[in-house]
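Q: what sequence does this backbone want?
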């Protein structure tokens, strides 16, 4: 990523500097996350998708759930419907829009 920033935009950054910026952003965004989840739970429809991901060399899924109230990302070791249920809650009464992946 540091090389991309240098070549594409002429910005000199280090990999560790990008990592620190990511940590600071995560700290600032953390209090908003529950509000975004609540907005999704109240949505009429939520679009969801996942893709394979690695955490410490182990297989996982990177999930995105988005609706009118916002977008939530989550990384989970499971690639099953339980992830969506965990975010939206068992009482979600809206419509789930997916790419027909079985989960």
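A:
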């Amino acid at each position: 990523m540091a090389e991309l920033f240098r070549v594409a935009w002429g910005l000199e950054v280090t990999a560790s500097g990008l990592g620190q910026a990511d940590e600071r952003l995560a700290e600032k965004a953390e209090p908003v996350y529950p509000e975004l989840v609540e907005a999704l739970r109240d949505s009429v429809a939520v679009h969801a998708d996942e893709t394979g991901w690695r955490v410490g060399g182990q297989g996982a899924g990177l999930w995105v759930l988005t609706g009118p109230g916002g977008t939530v990302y989550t990384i989970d070791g499971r690639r099953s419907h339980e992830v969506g249920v965990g975010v939206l809650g068992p009482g979600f009464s809206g419509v789930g829009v997916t790419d027909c992946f079985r989960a």
